[in-house]
Design brief:
It is a single chain. By secondary structure, this protein is an all-beta fold. It has no helices and five strands. It has strands spanning 16-26, 31-42, 45-47, 62-64, 67-77. It has a three-stranded antiparallel beta sheet with strand order 1-2-5, with no helix packed on it. A two-stranded antiparallel sheet has the order 3-4.
Length: 79
């Protein structure tokens, strides 16, 4: 039986960073089309195999990172 008290008990610190850009194109006197982009990422983190529900091969900790791309499209109205 799996011991749930040890699941997700891993702690790790990583450096996180992001970069973004935006563009606003006028489509009327007081209305602009707004387009934004953001990339977010972290440095590598290590997760021990004991943190998973399944039994992983005993190759040591799993190394991974987190990253995401975000795009936002909207309308900006100047009042």
């Amino acid at each position: 039986m799996l011991n749930n008290s040890s699941v997700y008990s891993n702690e790790e610190a990583a450096l996180a960073w992001q970069v973004g850009a935006g563009l606003a194109l006028p489509i009327a006197d007081n209305v602009k089309l707004d387009l934004r982009y953001r990339y977010f990422a972290t440095t590598d983190i290590s997760i021990s195999s004991e943190s998973f529900f399944y039994a992983a091969a005993d190759d040591g900790p799993v190394k991974t990172h987190v990253s995401s791309h975000s795009v936002l499209l909207g309308l900006r109205v100047d009042i």
